[in-house]
Protein: NADH dehydrogenase
Organism: Marinobacter zhanjiangensis
Amino acid sequence: MMSWLMAGLLFTPLAWAVVSLLVGFRTGRWLSWVGMVLQVGASVALWFAVARESGFYYALGGWQAPLGIELQVDGLALTFVLLTAAVASACGLHAGVYLDPDKPWQRYFWPLFWFLWAGLNAVWLGADLFNLYVGLELITLSAVGLVALGGDAGALRASLRYLLAALVGSMAYLLGVALMYGQFGTLSLAGMSHLAQEYPGLEGAGLAMALMMTGLALKTALFPLHGWLPPAHGIARSPVSALLSALVVKASFFIAARLWLELGPNLGTLALAQLAGVLGALAVLWGSWLACLQPQLKQVVAYSSVAQIGYLFLLFPLTWGVTEAVSQQAQQGMTLQVISHALAKAAMFLAAGNLILSTGSNRVSDLAGVSRFLPFSLFSFGLAGVSLMSLPPTGGFAAKWLLLQASLNSGQWWWTLVLLAGGLLSAAYVFRIYRASFVEHSELDQFYHPPRRLEAIPMMLALMSLGLGLVAEPLLSVMALPFGEGG
């Protein structure tokens, strides 16, 4: 049973990607909707299997590491697999209606969509540095192609800038992987963690760690390496922007977090941990401030992503040189932050796409009258914003509460100021959108009204983000499941 589920998660997206290349957009849409059902089913089934039996290592094709590819299937990995299934399915359903099937280049959306999904699952389940790199590159190349599907010169410029940044990040990461292999003779994360405990203080390993972290920070768009993100997220089609912000940048952070938690205690330093935290804090403040100033709606949401990414890098100072209890608080808070942000930001980008479709403009000032004639999409946008503002009972509130407790319990009280300031600035740019929408422009309804299903999808994602705080405890209990005996 497990073999079928693992094959479904990894090989079904690849098969769907290949088949989608052979058909047009409309046929690819129906084919993809069937594939989404299969992916969600496999993700839910594997989630319940891990919740019942605990995590395990799985060798593809029965070939054990180091000759074969070994996957790490635990509660945390399955949480992200299930998150990907939920968000990607929502974006795929939205794209099937939102995108124009008569534009010839849109037919490539579905193959790129499925290659992206395969890469994401490979990253969540990967157990060694090289296969994580393969999954990350599959994600990057698919995401660049999706950005370029806008078809105009601006989309091509944004995709090329994204590609250049991604290649530089990949080179730094791959050089670090080579140095790690030279130091430890293995690329298995579990094996390197064991060897790092036996032989601490390896200078080459420390340099490799720094190179890999730099490359991953560039791919995650951490300030000040974020210059590629706003153009790419802002100019891409809204379902693509939702995928990029909710899932793609999380993959590189996920690898960085795993590296830090596995190897950081032995190869990391206080300076590196604090530097990551400081850059994350600057990202929160700078990204939020620029979001308040943007004249275009999608640029507001894109710079909001820069800010929200900053919170993630508080994981590094809050888990280095602290007690196990504080580290667990920080890890739990960060995991909830990733999930909450993925749901909320996907909802915001999809709702923003609906508003742009309705008004025919991307400018914030052209939202005048939207609150009167198009309240549903605006309400979805606001619900997602509530999670970014970290108001109860949202997942954002539960995440920030855990991070605040970790900051105080570790004696690093200054990070609480970042959390509070970030929440206030998030409120400022969300209310700015609402202020523009409540301006009365005309007594006549001059807006295009999108199909109800386009409006329902971001609403469901926003409600999931809103209710995440109510189910945080059982969710965290499954994510913390240890490994069992089997593989």
